Amino acid sequence: MKYEVIIYWSYDDGAYVAEVPELPGCAAEAVRTPRRCRMCKS
Questions:
Q1: Minimal CA–CA distance to 17: which of 3, 33, 2, 1?
Q2: What is the structure's pLDDT at 36?
Q3: Which residues, 6 or more positions from 19, have their beta carbon under 8 angstroms from its beta carbon?
Q4: pLDDT at 22 (0 to 100)
Q5: The domain containing residue 10 runs over which residues?
Q6: Number of domains observed in the structure of the chain
Q7: Minimal CB count within 10 Å: which of 20, 30, 32, 35?
Q8: Rg of the chain's alpha carbons, rounded to an integer?
Q9: In sequence order, what are the beta bridge partners of 8?
């Protein structure tokens, strides 16, 4: 199953945030984009 992933920079956290709207509460954050993307795939 594929989900939409929204990625944005959070100035409050000083990191990128990836959220999955279809899965409430599902989010990951990281300073570097590749790490965050791997976290979303797992």
A1: 33
A2: 53
A3: 5, 6, 26, 27
A4: 92
A5: 6-41
A6: 1
A7: 32
A8: 10
A9: 17
Has this prediction a pTM greater than 0.70? no
Residue indicated by tokens 């409430």: 24
Q: Which two tokens stand for residue 14?
A: 């000083």
**pLDDT confidence of residue 29:** 80
The residue behind tokens 């990281």 is 30
Q: Which two tokens stand for residue 40?
A: 């979303």
The gap between the terminal CA atoms of the chain, to the nearest Å, is 12
3-state secondary structure of 28: strand
- Classify residue 24: in a domain, yes or no: yes
For 1-42, the pLDDT digits (tens) are 888 988 888 888 888 888 899 998 888 887 766 555 556 555
How many residues are recorded in the chain?
Answer: 42
Does 1 reside within a domain? no
